[in-house]
Structures are given as C-alpha cells and as structure tokens.
Amino acid sequence: MAHDWSDPSGLYALVGEFNTPEELMHAAEAARHAGYRKMDAYSPFPIHGLSEAIGFRDTKVPWTVFMFGLLGVTTGYTLQWWTSVIDYPLNVGGKPLNSIPPQPYHPIFNAKNFERASQDKFFLAVEAVDPHYDAKKIEKVMKEHGAVEVSECEY
Amino acid sequence: MAKVKDRKLNDLLITGDQSYGSIDHSVGRMVLDQKIHTTAWFKWLTVGVMGTGLLGLSIAWLLWQGIGIWGNNVPSAWGFDIINFVWWIGIGHAGTLISAILLLLRQQWRNSINRFAEAMTIFAVMCAGLYPLLHTGRPWNAYWLFPYPNILGMWPQWRSPLMWDVFAVSTYFSVSAVFWFVGLIPDFATLRDKSTNKHAKLIFAILSMGWRGSNQHWHRYEQMYLLLAGLSTPLVLSVHSIVSFDFAISIVPGWNVTVFPPYFVAGAVFAGFAMVLTWLIPVRKAYKLDHLVTDRHLDWMAKILLATGLIVFYGYILEVFYSWYSGNFYEYKLLIDTRFKGMYSWAYWALIFCNGVVPQLFWIPKMRKNIWALMIISQVVSVGMWLERFVIIPMSLTNNYLPSSDKPYYPSTWDFAMFLGTIGFFIFLMFLFIRFLPVINMFEVKDLLYKLGGKKEYVNQDETVEVK
C-alpha cells in the first residue's frame, strides 16, 4: 500500500540499531527468512554480502552504462564517418576515407586459393623484386615439378 | 570490548588505537573545525593567491598582445606552453592510476591516498588545459576545435593527433571530475551528519544528494565505481599515449619514435607520484594524519617511483640506441650535437641525473622511510620530468633537417610568469581542498579498518569523538 505523502503523521518503519556489520547481516537474513521483503539496511561503508542477505538484486547501473557507452561509440563513429566520407571527403596520405582500424595484412593473402595454405595445400611464391624474375620461366619450373596451378598475386 | 589496538593490523595501513569514530574525527575535523588551520595555511594560500594573480595577469597581457610575448618563434613554434602542458597533464596521472588501476588490482593501500591524488589530478588537468587553449592565439575561438556545423562547411581533422588531444584531455577531465565527486558523496553525508554548523550542514546536505548509506545506495555505488574505474583505466593509458602521438606521429628527429607512448605513460605516473609525495608528506604532518597515511604508504609510493623511474630511464637509453641503430643521420646529429654537447646539453645531463640517477637511491630501504629523502627526491623528479619535456621540445625543433632550424629558443619573462602562475593556481586550489573537503576517503578507510580488524571483532562506534 502506497504511503499518502500529504499526511505528515503515520508510521514509516521499525528500525533496529546494531554495533557490527555481522549482527546487521544476520538480522537481515533472519528477517528475510521470516518473510519480510520491504526492508533496507543502512551502514557507514559498503558491506559485502548484505545485498544477498536482504535479497536485493539490481543491474540497472551496468545496463545503463553499457547502453550509453554503445550510444557514445555509435555517435562518435557515425560523426567521424559522415564528416570525412560524405560531407567533406579529404584525401590524407592516401588513406581510405573510411579507415576502420587496420587488419594484419600481407600481400600473399591475395593469392588465389591461398586460404588452403593453412589447411591442406602447399605454396611457393617467387617475389617480383627478385633480379632474375621471369614469369614464363618460373611457371615452367613450377609446372614441371607438379604445380596444380600458377597464378599472379598482386599487392 | 576488544579494540583494534589489540589486533595486529595487517601491514600497518592504519596505525594506533582507531575506531570508526576516530577516523571520521581525524579527517572530518579538517573541514568541520576550521580553527585547526593555522597561519601556515593562510600563508600558503596567500602564495597561491599571488600565483593565481600572476597567472591572471599573464593571461590578460597575452590576450591583449598576442603570443608574441612568449619566446615561441619559428623554428620553435612549441615552447614553454607545450612543455608545461605535458608536465601538468603527466602530474595528473598518478591520481587516476591510484583511483582506477589500483582499485581494479584490489590494492587496499590506495584507500587513504586516492582522494588526495584525485584532487591533484583535476587541478593539474585544469592547469594543463590552459596552455593549448592559450597557445591557439585566439582562445575565444577555441570552440572551433569541436565538431559543430558551421558556415565554413568544415569539420575537425580526425586524423590529427592534436584533435585526439582535444577529446582525450576533455574526456579525461570530465571522467576524473565525475569519479572524484561520486567518491565524495558518502563522505559529504558523513560531514552533513557530523556538522553542527547550520550553513555547513545545508551545503553538505545538498552535495550529498540525500545519501543515507542504504544498502541499495551502496549496491549501486559499488557497481558504478567499478565501472568508472574500468572506463578510467584505458583512459589514463590513452591520454598520455595520445599526448606522445603529438610528437611521435611527426617526422622531427627525436620525436618519431615508437617507444614514446609507454615511455610517456610511465613518465606521467613517475611525475604524478612525485607530486603526491610532495604534498602528502607535509599535509599528513601538519594535520596529524600519519596514522592513516603511514610510513608503509610512503614506502610503497617510493617503490612505484623507483619502478616507473626505471622504465623512463630505459626510454632514455633506448633513445641513444635508436639514434645510432636507425642509421638516420639527423637522429644521430641530434643526439651528438644537441643533446650530448650542444648549447642545451646541460638540460640533457641534468635530466639524466634527476630522473635516471637520483631515484636509484630508493633501492635503499632507509631512503624510502626517510621523510627528507622522500621530499627531496620527489622535487628532483618533478624538475627532471620538466627537463624531459624541455629536452624533447626545443632541442628537436632547433636542430633538424634544414640549416634554417638552427636558431636557439629563449623563453621570455612571460613564459616564466605563466609557468609560476599555474604553479600558484595549483597551490591555491590544493589549499582550498585541504580546508573545505575531506582529504582522505573516510568511508573507504572505515571499510579498510573493518577488514583489517577482523570481521568477528568489535569496532565500537559509540566512541565517536565529538568535534570541539
């Protein structure tokens, strides 16, 4: 039953005073076992386990923080993306306009079928910077030795 | 009625015959009993007020005349303003380290020093923020730094570390301020209930926002405090990393180094702990708080100084190494011609002495217990950290790729006036803090006393000492 705040009289609660946190905790547990739910404990510092003793469980704060964090991240990223990709695109150092955090990259990942290098196939790459680089000759050597496929891989 | 005295307090984080009431008394009386503040407090406040006046004067003259009154000029477009900005912001980092990182690591010795260090953080960031703001030359246009739709159709340059600075420092300030205030709420409630003065009671009643120590309050408080610590931890690491990017992302010799972020963060904590010690030692003596801030606290802070000092010293050694190993002529020229034997080489060698050599004294346990040694070494470290930024900024700017850069940097009188002014402003704020806010987190220390005293034991609350 809700309290009528316009009425200054009336009973709010029965309050017990304790000397130690343990006594308070045991009293709270006992009151909870006796079936009371509308109660709260008051202490000069936080007492661990008291929430459980009283039966108070609450996750409003973490959820609020999480939702606002999510809102902040989304707003911040959208602002940066919209201003630098849509509204005022500006080439800085040749970087992509929408530069999400970079991924570990190596040009060999562009090679055909290369995802199987970590599974069940074997690859040999002769780099274009080699002073003797000659695509036809290398392909011939590779084919002679059983290469299933020879393809060019770009940066 | 067993008292805490009978128990062996673990590690002496709290000494003497203490009860909940005596802790409230020894901290609370600094606010509630205004008579205990002697003329020494007033003298120091006067120093602070004079410094603040000097700061006001320097700013007024700067706004009137423009930044030509400073020694900054091409090639040294950055001078005292950026040196002091980095110095102050670094000092702030000890507060966040103590309040956030040590909380996550469950280091309970932080409880009696966190409030003090957090106050220092906020005041130091205030001093730091002034410099880049005034360095813009037209601070009344500072809002241009923020993204807002404007008639120029322009947006901030998101790829510039100077832009990251704006967001890092402003976020750092706001999070630190929230963290500080949230931590103060339960203590404001204690002061509200202890206070006998009508006006003080009203002010603390408003500030404590109706705090009644309910289990629901504590439950939400602890959730929030932990989350704030979780948010501040990456923040404290990123703020100074970003400050270091202001340098590291450029191509100036001596700046373009990957070691800068960790080296700057360690330097910040180093400078911050030195400043915490500089303040805590006299304050705990003057206000008889040595039962709450014990020799054990000072010992551990000295160890952190030693550890972060070693990281910083490693950074200096690495700077020498890479200028040779990089094979870059200009890096090598900077090291030999400017740092080792140039006109500013005294600053470089003084830096090595202050930050590299002197803190090694903390290997000796006696030094970590000696108040005078702690005080003097802390001051030496503060000087050293200022010199570090001097070595980084004008030295690199006055010796790099072109002969036209070989022009010495001389700070002007106004550079010194503004630096002294911010120190004065810091002193002013700290002395107000000492008199009007609880300098030690009372409820956290009571919690610590309860945990140290052993849960079964009786820590009597009836013995609350009345404020006279």
Q: Your description of this structure?
A:
The complex is a heterodimer of chains A (155) and B (468). Chain A is an all-alpha fold and 155 residues long. Chain A has helices at residues 21-33, 50-54, 60-87, 135-144. The longest helix of chain A is centred in the middle third of the chain and has 28 residues, at 60-87. The mean pLDDT of chain A is 88. The longest helix of chain B is centred in the middle third of the chain and has 34 residues, at 161-194. Chain B is mainly α. Chain B has 15 helices and no strands. Helix content of chain B is 68%, strand content 0%. The radius of gyration of chain B is 24 Å and the shape is globular. Classes of the chains: A mainly alpha (155), B mainly alpha (468). Chain A binds chain B through residues 19-22, 40-47, 50-51, 54, 56, 58-62, 65, 79-80, 83-84, 87-88, 90, 92-93, 95, and chain B through 20, 147, 153-159, 186, 190, 212-216, 218-224, 227, 443-444, 446-447, 450, 455-456, 458-462.
Quick overview of this protein structure:
The complex is a heterodimer of chains A (155) and B (468). Chain A has 155 residues and is mainly alpha-helical.
Number of helices of chain B: 15
Number of strands of chain B: 0
Number of domains of chain A: 3
Cα gyration radius of chain B (Å): 24 Å
Distance between the termini of chain B: 26 Å
Q: Which class best fits the helix and strand makeup of chain B?
A: mainly alpha
Distance between the termini of chain A: 73 Å
Helix and strand run of chain A = HHHH
| Rg of chain A computed from alpha carbons, rounded to a whole number of angstroms | 35 Å
CATH superfamily of chain B: Formate dehydrogenase/DMSO reductase domain
The CATH first-level class of chain B comes to Mainly Alpha
Number of domains of chain B: 1
CATH architectural label of chain B: Up-down Bundle
Kindly state the mean pLDDT of chain A as a whole number? 88
Which percent range fits the helix content of chain B? Answer: 55-70%
SS strand fraction of chain B: under 5%
User: Which regions of chain B have little confidence, pLDDT < 50, spanning 5+ residues?
Assistant: 1-10, 455-468
